Amino acid sequence: MIKKINNIAVLTSGGDAPGMNAAIRAVVRACSYYNLDCTGIYRGYQGLIEGDFEKLDARSVRNVINKGGTFLKSTRSIEFKTKEGRAKAYENLKKAGVDALIVIGGDGTFTGGLLFNQEFGFPVVGIPATIDNDINGTDYTIGYDTALNTVVEAIDKIRDTASSHNRLFLIEVMGRDAGDIALNSGIGAGAEEILIPEEDGGVELMMESLEKSKKSGKTSSIIVVAEGEKSGKTIFELAEHIGEKYEEYDIRVSVLGHIQRGGSPSCFDRVLASKLGVGAVEALTDGKSNIMIGVHHQKVVHVSLEKALKEGRKLDKELRRVANITSV
Amino acid sequence: MIKKINNIAVLTSGGDAPGMNAAIRAVVRACSYYNLDCTGIYRGYQGLIEGDFEKLDARSVRNVINKGGTFLKSTRSIEFKTKEGRAKAYENLKKAGVDALIVIGGDGTFTGGLLFNQEFGFPVVGIPATIDNDINGTDYTIGYDTALNTVVEAIDKIRDTASSHNRLFLIEVMGRDAGDIALNSGIGAGAEEILIPEEDGGVELMMESLEKSKKSGKTSSIIVVAEGEKSGKTIFELAEHIGEKYEEYDIRVSVLGHIQRGGSPSCFDRVLASKLGVGAVEALTDGKSNIMIGVHHQKVVHVSLEKALKEGRKLDKELRRVANITSV
Amino acid sequence: MIKKINNIAVLTSGGDAPGMNAAIRAVVRACSYYNLDCTGIYRGYQGLIEGDFEKLDARSVRNVINKGGTFLKSTRSIEFKTKEGRAKAYENLKKAGVDALIVIGGDGTFTGGLLFNQEFGFPVVGIPATIDNDINGTDYTIGYDTALNTVVEAIDKIRDTASSHNRLFLIEVMGRDAGDIALNSGIGAGAEEILIPEEDGGVELMMESLEKSKKSGKTSSIIVVAEGEKSGKTIFELAEHIGEKYEEYDIRVSVLGHIQRGGSPSCFDRVLASKLGVGAVEALTDGKSNIMIGVHHQKVVHVSLEKALKEGRKLDKELRRVANITSV
Amino acid sequence: MIKKINNIAVLTSGGDAPGMNAAIRAVVRACSYYNLDCTGIYRGYQGLIEGDFEKLDARSVRNVINKGGTFLKSTRSIEFKTKEGRAKAYENLKKAGVDALIVIGGDGTFTGGLLFNQEFGFPVVGIPATIDNDINGTDYTIGYDTALNTVVEAIDKIRDTASSHNRLFLIEVMGRDAGDIALNSGIGAGAEEILIPEEDGGVELMMESLEKSKKSGKTSSIIVVAEGEKSGKTIFELAEHIGEKYEEYDIRVSVLGHIQRGGSPSCFDRVLASKLGVGAVEALTDGKSNIMIGVHHQKVVHVSLEKALKEGRKLDKELRRVANITSV
Question: Does the N terminus or the C terminus of chain A have fewer Cβ atoms within 10 A?
């Protein structure tokens, strides 16, 4: 028999992403709508272990929908990786009368939540929020769309300078395993080349393309490089590599870095976060557990946490083709 | 037998939308990639009639992907609504050696293109670009995502003032027949109420909700109103209507207006425009005609222009529900 | 003998302006730096009358420097215009042990502060914060620079549309008595004409200029109109007036409205607010009162409240000349 | 006897800065206003040597006021540092019938212009445009205000992440010799510490301040570091230095880099550029030469190029004090 849910706790964990606040707000508001208590947990799983809890009501989340970051804060907890840590967390939840837990974050967050559910049978639902868009079973993760806009706005600025000076810019964007940010922002920013983790031989293709560009008289270029690009070279080594072969290029490197995680969320991310937050609360009141609330074909879907954590996301080959064609 | 396509013309027509330049660029680049000629037509169907043509190559579209508006300009042509006008247009295309036409715009644009195709058998492909997202058969139109971001950014600014002064703001956003902008931006901006053309009785519901808010002590509110809202009242009359009943409210009206059509396109719109522009050229070289290139479930799809022009888009009821829940 | 200042109260009043939060923060931090107590007063003079006070310390103002609006909120108080109201306010300050009052706002705010000082001898210092830049004795008011950026960004968006369609846009910006916003944003946005309250005959000059533009074949135009423009016509009547004479123009009106008061403050406004906030606390601890802290030639200056309230700000004729020259 | 000026050439040189296009536009429009010819020179002094000239009229500079970079492009010319190079440049100007030259840029640009004037007696006027604000005799250089806004917006985004994770961020901003960007953006972004080239011992002060912060329980911090900070350590070495002493800090480094040079100019920079561009043309028609057109106390001023190039700009000590007080 399924226990009735009266009190739902919510936390954010792992790297922060724009729209996390909008997701928390939707969870809190949905609890309020369904007359459930809502317990906010500060600092992710670490706060769960330390009992850093606060009751949240509809008014607690006023004016947060447009704020970057997460007001519940986020940490990476080493203690939660131990059995003892998780046991403490469980005791705290019981003591506080919490019946279910919503965890907002990426794969590390879901791994923790899944383990916790398996050990204690505690109802857990995940909401995917990471700028990397690297979660299986959801078309989009919260924060990804905003990060893309941040990246193209930054590259637009760099292009002003690149065009003024006929320069070649290597721009590093986030994405350790997934090239989604690089590929989409590369198309969006009109990059001449895009290097992504999912492809081998990118550097050779880039060198060939620079050869062609040189012949056609093109002198300024933007090359977008995902963090996890496959060559084994740092972006500074890549710049040197090009410089050795093409002395005529005035090459610059820009690592966009942490600005990509911040900023006021886009409308897309705010609406997505609102849908998933409401969906998470409704899944729990429907007796569901151990799932991620995702979006597929614009509909809210339920995906088992195991499946969400599986690798196997594929590169969108059509998009790669579009990138190649529009950069001629 | 299908005539081989060697020269593709492209025009923008109707209300402009951010991302039109990105779509033109993708058409031009795809022509270049497939070694086709590309002919730009200025000022939409009027320029077609007047022969205002220019050859475009890959370099013609440098640094336009991030620009709002359309560098090919757009007009509403009365002459193209006459048989004589369209005949002149056809002659001009023949004279210029153009084999097919890509029209970028909304329903008016597609209606013209369809008629032209039917009369002269001239291959026409449409690309949906309008901030209203009111075209059948495509999940998104170019410019819609950018407009949503423009609207939520504007409302974020107004909320600063609303919160500082405990005021009630009525904010009019675009959308004559479709409530998509109002509903999504309303959720994204955290509006307390949303009035849309697809629903009757919105004003009564709003008044009830204000009654509740008043009782709960809430004093500042944002109400998003779509242009085509059903009450028959202007937004200024709505403000008066509220003011008569609730003297205690300090009510202000803001009509967002034309800023919603402009601005640098979002990454989403730039990528969408790139996909659709490439898809349009490839459809023509595949012998397709009389279709719109849309996007459905993140894939490029072909939709007959007749179907694209059909009414019957439905309100996303799930989204309406999310709006109601997150505004408690 | 001057009483030593141990406890300073701060309030915001009148129309809100971006950077008010940064000014409050600077006041609070300066109090903390000099080991003074700081008392925040909510809702301006009305909160003063109702005793809506809260102790503020350095941590109370974390993460507010970048927020628009004012977290202390602002109202226009009718009660403070009565002797009884002001007497209540005085009693509340005495009861709370407050020794001096910093008022952040525009001329209405300073008028209230001056009267209060005259009646009760209570030390009052003003900080000019209004988007209109219409205070005598300071080169800039807090919020003005941000409003200019908001206006030019909005007009940039509208110009996308104007250029795409060859349209004439009349754009109304704030400024009832002062043309500073219209003149500066008009130059900054590349407007063809600018109508301001300080000049007569603007409409006639505009009509002449449109005549010239028409002859030179110019078809899209931006005309910036200050709210308080002198013709006695509303902006919609102006549009009609033009339309009657020039049928060939496709004329649109845009009233920018309340977005001009909101938004994250520019760096200029944040730094200005920081300087003035610190300056206000230091003026009080130096025994000064009845003054406004302004900025002149990039230095912090003290101006008597009487002088700050005097009219007599002049139009910058050089700037008007630059506007005329750069719009040829 | 002074030769009448009929044809003025304009170029941009050195690092690009937002607002250069607005300055070019004002030069071109002022030439048009005074019925002078205007010759645009591409790629700075290198284009002068290569004769890369184009006639510009009022319409050539439509829709450029809001664009970053410089449409005339900019290079650093080694050839212009040789007598032969400059001689070629002089011949080209004579051949093209140019009577005077306006150079837009920073100190390198002015050094070139001064030398050219001294050797050939050719009238040269400079317009200060560099994001570093490091030119003597003008309160502001074009591009500086925009760069400050770009930096604070970037740091606002990083603070979202810093606050969410309780992290310490070291953020490198531009400024090799001048701390103006670091000091102003540091105040504007609410940085806890600011390291600038004009001060010794900044690192020690920073370490002391971190000690204090640690004791007071403060866990997230933003430290803004100017490129040319005095310690001789790179920002990565600084991070290590802190990490060795304070293991408890989760330290991250962000080098903002080239985004600081791009972007649409702020209203302040557009108006400044308009004033200086008009002033430069009027100075030449008044028979002036060998000067920079600057702004001092909001008025256009003439400064000899020698004086503009002199070092001796001082740190604004008042501003440093404000930084110390508002970061308590």
Answer: N
What are the tens digits of pLDDT across the range A199-225?
A: 888 888 888 888 887 777 776 789 999
Q: Which residues lie below 8 Å from residue D158, measured CB to CB, with a gap of 6+?
A: A258, A259, A262, D169, D171, D222, D254
Cβ–Cβ under 8 Å, residues D110 and D118: no
Distance between CA D144 and CA D266 in Å, rounded? 9
Domain containing A83 equals 7-143+265-309
Taking contacts as CB-CB distances below 8 angstroms, the residues of chain B near A326 are 25-26, 29-30, 274, 277-278
C161 in contact with chain B, both atoms CB, cutoff 8 A? yes
User: Domain for residue C321, yes or no?
Assistant: no
Query: Which of the following is catalytic: D16, D37, D99, D132?
Result: D132
| C-alpha distance from A110 to closest chain D C-alpha (Å) | 18
d(CA C314, CA C179): 10
Mean pLDDT of B194-210: 88
How far is the C-alpha of D20 from the C-alpha of D109, rounded, in Å?
Answer: 13
Report residue A87 CA to chain centroid gap: 28
Distance CA C195, CA C203 (A): 7
Active site residue C132: yes
Q: Are C248 and C290 members of one domain? A: no
DSSP states of D108-177: HHHHHHHHHHHHH---EEEEEB-TT---TT-S--BTHHHHHHHHHHHHHHHHHHHHHHT-EEEEEES-SS
Q: What is the tally of structural domains in chain A?
A: 2
pLDDT on residue D166:
81
Residues B205 and B181 in one domain: yes
Whether residues A37 and A123 fall in one domain: yes
Residues B224 and B105 in one domain: no
Which one of A12, A161, A259 has the shortest CB-CB distance to D258?
A161
Q: Which tens digits make up the pLDDT trace of C86-98?
A: 999 999 999 999 9
In a domain, B325, yes or no: no
Put simply, the chain A residues between 257 and 276 with a CB less than 8 A from any chain D CB are: 257-259, 261-263
Say whether C171 sits in a helix, a strand or coil: strand
Query: For residue D264, which residues of chain C lie inside 8 Å, CB to CB?
Result: 153, 156
- Chain A residues lying within 8 Å of B154, measured CB to CB: none
Residues 71-130 of B with CB under 8 A from A: none
- CATH number of the domain encompassing residue A249: 3.40.50.460
Is the Cβ pair C151, D189 closer than 8 Å? no
3-class DSSP state of A197: coil
Given B132, B145, B180, B269, the catalytic residue: B132
B281 and B164, same domain (yes or no) = no
Q: State the pLDDT at residue C219.
A: 67
Q: Which tokens sit at C100? A: 């001096």
Cβ contact (<8 Å) for D157 and A262? yes
Rounded mean pLDDT, A170-190: 95
The 10s digit of each residue's pLDDT in A313-325 is: 788 999 999 999 9
The C-alpha of A21 sits at a distance from chain B's nearest C-alpha, in angstroms, of 12
Per DSSP, C129 falls in state B
- Has the ipTM of the complex gone over 0.90? yes
Query: Is residue B52 domain-resident?
Result: yes
Instruction: Tell me: do B205 and B70 sit in the same domain.
Output: no
The CATH number of the domain holding residue D13 is 3.40.50.450
How many Cβ atoms from other residues are within 10 Å of residue C3's Cβ? 9
Q: Report mean pLDDT in 10-residue bins for chain C, 328 residues.
A: 85 96 98 98 97 96 95 94 97 98 97 97 98 95 98 96 89 93 97 92 86 76 92 91 87 95 97 98 97 96 96 87 94
Q: Is D153 a domain residue?
A: yes
D125 Cβ contact partners less than 8 Å away, ≥ 6 residues apart: D100, D101, D102, D103, D280, D283, D284, D288, D289, D290, D291, D292, D293
Same domain, C137 and C270: yes
B199 and B288 co-located in one domain? no
